[in-house]
Amino acid sequence: MRPGLETRPDFPVLAQQVNGKPLVYLDSGATSQKPRQVLAAVDAYYERDNANVHRGLHALSMRATEAFEKSRARIARFVGAADPAEIVFTRGTTESVNLVAASWCSANLRPGDEILLTEMEHHSNMVPWQLAAARAGATVRYLPVAGADAEHGLDLDRLDEFLTPRVKLFAFTHISNTLGVVNPAAELCRRARAVGAATLIDAAQSVGHEPLDVQALGCDFLVFSGHKMCGPTGIGVLYGRKALLDAMPPYQGGGGMIENVEFSGSTFKPAPERFEAGTPDIAGAIGLAAACDYIDGIGRPAIAAHDHRLGELARAALEELPGIRVLGPRAGSPRAGMVSFAFANIHAHDVVTVADQQGVALRGGHHCNMPLMKKLGLPSTARASFYLYNTEEEVAALAAALRKVVKFFG
């Protein structure tokens, strides 16, 4: 099965009309749609195996536990982890970052240390580090983007200026959720190791879109959400090297993560259990494993090529419109299937509203990139983001909808 038309029958939500027009869903950067195979996996758990995991001895609990831990192992294979114990289930990318910021930083960050981020980070890969740095008396610095429209991505010529031995952790996005820039993650990790810094990759926009192997990347931590890669909402993943996870203190306390509890204190299980207090999102983990199967059934190299093609076509089509400013990589540069743009005298929310009247679903706003927007002199942008179920015909529908926007606002 190839991305595009062949995958569309697997996504029942795409068959509907919106405002009397066929739905053109171009907001996968915010959340992807779910194939029937994932919906069926979640339904099957609730219909047959619904029970709590790890602590029950009855048949349903044992079946649920087996499915839950098989899902952990499947997701470990999906990202190339050496051991399923390196996979911690969370609620999403945001909680995964917060876990590392609270736990790893409490054990490793000291006054005068630095955390290095980039100017293109999502707020979820920015605010937790600001809080951690404030607690420890450390400093957060930001590797700049280059170009008037950030078309050159990160200013890697200045990396040595920012990535010094004072940096204890370098956290960066693999693919920018606003710019569509694909960062050289393996190279950034290699450079960080050379100065003794740990690394965390925000893979929310990349893990379901292109080949990814944590061992080849050489990262210490990697985080992502299920709902952006055809999986359910409410389930996320933290990959961490086992030695690092085992040395980190618990993030939350409760049932499931303890070895022994006394009135005087408690002892805790090794990773990943020590970070999974309470009842986990069992159905979400099972659905996420089914999403891994679905994506690998198509092939991430094919998905990456498809996304790149649609992103290139969209950028070319948008550049023909009057009064438009398109952010991110120019033609011929590595890019993801995502294009952000702004009209000189039309607010992004108005763009999205008129496009919705044509059945085209876009995202408008600052995309949780407020500092980047301010640097680029923009209050907001509109964004089209593509995935394995989108088609070239939908790029044409996007261009037609935006021509109506230009005509409507004169």
What does the model show?
It is a single chain. The protein is α/β, with parallel strands linked by helices and about 400 residues long. It is built from 13 helices and 17 strands. It has helices spanning about 35-50, 60-80, 95-110, 125-135, 160, 185-195, 215, 240-245, 280-300, 300-320, 350-355, 370-375, 390-410; strands at about 15-20, 20, 25, 85-90, 115-120, 140-145, 165-175, 200, 220-225, 235-240, 260, 265-270, 325, 340-345, 360, 365, 380-385. Helix 1 runs antiparallel to helix 9, helix 2 (about 60-80) crosses helix 9 (about 280-300) and helix 3 (about 95-110) runs parallel beside helix 4 (about 125-135). The longest helix is centred in the first third of the chain and has 21 residues, at about 60-80. The two termini are about 45 Å apart.
